[in-house]
Each structure stands twice: as C-alpha cells, then as structure tokens.
Amino acid sequence: MSHQSGSVYKYNGTWYLKYRTSEGDSSSAKRVHKTLTLCAVNGERHHEQCASRGEHRSKKSILPLRDVLMKPVNDGAVKPADPKAAMLVTDFWETLYLPHISGTGGLKESTVWGYKQIWKQHLKPHFAGVALKDYRTHHGSQLLTTLAKKLGRRTVTNTKNLMSAIFTYAVNKGLIDTNPCHDMKPLIRTKEPANTKAYDLETALAIINLFPAEPDIQCMLSLLYFCGLRIGEVSGLKWDDFSPTQVSIERAIVRGKECTPKSKSSTAPVPLIAPVLGALQRWNKASGFPKTGWVFLNDKGKPQDLKSVIQRKVVPVVEKADLPWYGTHAFRRGTGTMLTELTGDALSAKQVLRHANVSTTTAAYVKEMPKEGVPGLKLFEQKVLTAGSGE
C-alpha cells in the first residue's frame, strides 16, 4: 500500500478524516473508503487520541491528530475492523433502520413518510460521517437547541423521538450498548405550537356552496365537515361502506397507498345526518348509482388523489371568493368544536372523531368555548337546517 496523508475536511462544525484501506484477507481484499470523526471545531468534543483539548479553528491545528491516526495505516498495522463497530449512523439508517420500519410489518406509510422528511431536513446533515459508537448525548442536545431557536415544539420533539428510535434499534441489534438519547433535550425553551384553525358552520357551508355544479366536491367537503373524516379516510371510502344511517371507516389512502386508518379507535362507524346524506345521494346519482367500488375514483379506476383535487379545484375557488382556507383538517376541527358547543361537553365530539381519549379532542380539536355521538350530530343537523332556512 502506497503512503497516503488522508483527506481532512470540515462539515457542520466537525473535522473528519477520510482515507483508503484494505478489507478482507489477502485473497479477497478490497480497497474501501473509511471516514473517522476527529474533533469539533469549537473544541467541545475531541477524538480520544487528540493531544490538544482546545479549539480547532484551522485545518493546521487538526493535522497532528491526522498524522497520529494515519501512521498505523501507512505502517500496515491497521487490522481489518469489524464493520459493525464503525458503522456510520447514515449507513445504519439506509441499510437497517429504514427497511425495518418500511413495508410489511413496519410502521404506517404516513409515519414512515414523516420520518423520511425529518431525516432529510434535520438528521442526515447532522449525522454525516458520525459512527454510531461515537455519538453522545450532548451532540444531540446541540442539534435540538439549534432547532428550538427557529422551529416549534412539535418539530423538536418529533426529531428527538426519531433519533431515539434509531439508537434504540441499534442497541437491540447489538451495535451499541446504550441509547445516547435518553437524557437528551434542548437547552432553551421550545416555542409553543402555533394555534390551529377551525371552520365555523357558516364558513363551512359557504365553502361547500361554492360548488353547486360539482357534486363530487360538495360530497367530499360534506364528509370532511359533517362527519369529521380525515382526507385520507374520505379517499378510502367505498360505496358499500355506507348504510342509510352510518358510514364504516375501514381504510385510508395515504400517498396513493391503501392502509388502515390512523389508529385502532379510528376504525369505527360514523353517523350520517341529512346534509351529508343529501350530498352523497347527489354524487351517487351523478356517478350512475353505483353500489360498490370507490366513492371517488380516477379515470383508471383507482382512488382519486383528493389532496390534488383540493389544491387544483377547491383552494383557487375559495380564495377567489375571499373566504379563508385553513386546510382540510380545519373541517374536522370545526366538527369537534360544533359538537362540543351543542352538547356542552367533548364526549360526543370524541366519539364522532373517533379519538382514543377525550383529552385529544379537547386539546387539539375543540377550538371555542351529552352522552354519545348520535345526539350531538342530531343537534348539529338541526343547526345546519336552521342555518339553511335563514331562520
């Protein structure tokens, strides 16, 4: 092996050393790239063989450590390393953790998508060149503190949760002994989540009535508001899910893929009231009176991408009418708000929205301000009819 100096580079506040070496026995040896984490530029962490415990602002200051680490490589004294012992966090994500949570038996499609977004935006750059075994609690605290300066509490918490899940899996795979995320936290106060919006009855009706010649859109919006369904649940509806009095929520469509509803409690029937029944009947008639199959389907016979329909056909019309657009979940929050106001408590809203706990309903879905969902919806129905009659 020829003499090499190695390549020293700086990324995201840390110095790294990259070099080439051979792996395997003499008959099957192959040349591979290796990357070692050296020291932080600000001196907060150091390689165990670093003789200096100060800052490393210049490349020159890190070169003595490079020479120490490259000597055994050039002398041929480096033994083939156990690839697991030096596995990078980024490699672990790609080769082990992501396949573990994806596909059959893994997490829900929507959860995996959210994890991928967090990884791409926040964690992949943070973990570049870092080995699982070298990661420490204070490294993560630095990241969370940086995020907390500009992002909300939910983003910081979700990022920490994903980090912890990654290292927990690494522990259980025998690659590291402990999870460095257990005591990890941001070192400043995190920002309160922004207030979410909910549609009141008058605004919801105004939006629905913008589409008198489009029964599919009226039906979709009515299901969002009068039944409190999620957009993925509306996409997943089939005509045979309906009876004269209720609709059974059996599935959802998330980014084009059929999956189970968000939670176990979400798989439940929802009562139907007059406004949504009327919208359903009009759309069923316009569709040729089907009794089975997808309620909203594209020209290929597959479930329609309702998020695309919203963006292309609904949002421009709503904005042109000078009405507020808060997103599809604002209809669901409006359902919870209206049911709670009409019945005097959140239990009716909990049952219609199919939350596992009433605390979820009151914390996130009741935006203003008795025993089961049906009476609450009957009051809701009467209020809608009254509003429609102009009384």
How would you describe what is shown here?
- It contains 14 helices and 7 strands.
- The protein starts with 6 loop residues before the first strand and ends with a helix.
- It is mainly alpha-helical.
Sum this structure up briefly.
By secondary structure, the protein is mainly α. The protein is 45% helix and 10% strand.
- Provide the number of structural domains: 3
Averaged pLDDT: 84
Structural class by helix and strand composition: mainly alpha
CATH superfamily of the largest domain: Intergrase catalytic core
Poorly predicted parts: 366-373
Helix content: 40-55%
- Largest sheet, described in full? 3 strands, antiparallel
- Rg of Cα set: 28 Å
Order of helices and strands: EEEHHHHHHHHEEEEHHHHHH
Query: Which strand order does the major sheet show?
Result: 1-2-3
Strand content: 5-15%
CATH class of the largest domain: Mainly Alpha
Number of helices: 14
Broad shape: elongated
- Gap between N and C termini: 90 Å
Number of strands: 7
CATH-defined fold name of the largest domain: hpI Integrase, Chain A
CATH architecture label name of the largest domain = Orthogonal Bundle
